[in-house]
Amino acid sequence: MKLATKIGLTTATIITAYLIGNYLLTPTIPKLENTWWGSRDPSTEDTTIKPFRINVSEEVLEDLQNRLANTKLTPPLEGIQHQYGLNTKLLSKIVTYWRTKYDWKKREIFLNKYPQFMVSIQGLRLHYIHLKPQKRDNVKTLPILLLHGWPGSVREFYTTIQLLTKPTKGRNFIFEVIVPSLPGFGFSEASVRPGLGPIEMAVIFKNLMKRLGHEKYLVQGGDWGALIAQQMAVLFPDQVLGIHSNLCFDTSVLSALKLALGSLYPSWVVPKNFEHRLYPLLSFVMNLVEETGYMHIQTSKPDTVGAALNDSPVGLAAYILEKFISWTNPDWKNFEDGGLLKKYTYDDLLDNIMIYWISGSITTSMRLYSHALDNVMTIINVQRISITVPSACAIFPNEIFPQPGAMLREKYQNLVHVSENSDGGHFPAFELPHVYAEDIFVATEKMLEANSQRN
What residue segments make up the domains of the chain, in order of their start? Predict the structure, then answer.
């Protein structure tokens, strides 16, 4: 047999085996170890829960003021708003506000309004907010884990926390809310070695909830938090009562096929008010390419860009605020003011930036993109396993990758709630907290009913 024929047959066999293994055979749920991610000796690690308060020194604040005062900005091009990134005219205005009106001491009091704690899980000291509601007769309390993403933080949930812990008319339940900073984000320690991706974080958060005394609980997530929530539901279905996500997605071949077929007749796939977000398909793909350039940098060279952002508060602000413009509403990049004050205040946005700045966590937060590739085949295989726990998807039209309910049911086989909202983008807990909290309440009613039927 000729060499070329042998190579061809070998290649065909490998490809066939790959396709069968990855698309025809059901993958098994992996057994993940409780990996030790910290630098300290496990035998001497203090695992007690300790109260935590944000307390920034005057030295750090003076250094920040000096850096803000010595900002160097390049003038924008004529006739350009934010199509090239954050316009430096707006950035200069925000920096002036930061220097002269943003009062950190008042913001620090605000950020410390909820009980915060530290506890070591798998060698990492994790920061989390933990608010327990007042006990009320005939009202049960449900634990819920809220997971943020990048470039967000626990700050996104501050209004939502309050709303979830208060009774609502006609409902017999409220929530005990746990909001951790992801490892390497904000005040949570980062891993000292490669490999702590989203699937490994799923194990950490299962162990965190167990450490807090919760064997069964709900999980909510957006951005990276959405992926971690998915994987917690797959890996630990006996612990997860249900998941609520504002970034539901299905990466299966069938989902991709539905997306492509929608080009012929969009109403097969999306409701009328969503058509312009996905079709024409080429425009959608080009917008996705434009909005995900950061991802390629952070996946391949997070430490390089991190060095620049960790040294410059203005650079950090520009890098993060750009996302809050185009990911909240893509049309806002055409507005001179970036549209930011339509949904946020400068104090809101600077709180989030300050959490990254004072903790020095921008580099370690961006490493999550790279760590996700360390075990990419494990993630791919887990992504192929359907979620059987009750699930709810809150879909917002300005999400950069909105998938309607028709594209999600293969992944979420017990999809009990889908809300296709008329407004909102990538940060709904931050921009529309009342809509977001109400959706969690409505979805939870349905998830509880689904669990009662399953049991």
Answer: 42-454
Widest CA span in the chain: 81
**Cα separation, 347 vs 352, whole angstroms:** 9
Q: What tokens were used for 281?
A: 């398909």
How does pLDDT run across 140-186, given as a tens digit for each residue? Answer: 999 999 999 999 999 999 999 999 999 888 899 999 999 999 999 99
**CB–CB of 99/71 below 8 Å?**
no
Threshold 0.90, pTM exceeds? yes
Residues in CB range of 231: below 8 A, 6 or more apart: 198, 199, 202, 379, 382
Q: Give me the DSSP letters along 59-78.
A: HHHHHHHHHHHT---PPPPT
**CATH of the structural domain 42-454, one choice from 3.40.50.2300, 3.30.230.10, 3.30.565.10, 3.40.50.1820:** 3.40.50.1820
Q: What is the DSSP letter of 85?
A: B
Q: Annotated active-site positions, please?
A: 223, 369, 426
CB 214, CB 182: distance < 8 Å: no
Residue 4, token pair as written in the block:
């070329």
Sorted by sequence, the CB contacts under 8 Å of residue 432 that are 6+ apart come out as: 343, 396, 421, 423, 424
Strands 240-245 and 50-52: unpaired
Reported as a single tens digit per residue, the pLDDT across 346-402 is: 999 999 999 999 999 999 999 999 999 887 777 778 888 999 999 999 999 899 888
- Answer yes or no: are the C-beta atoms of 23 and 253 closer than 8 Å: yes
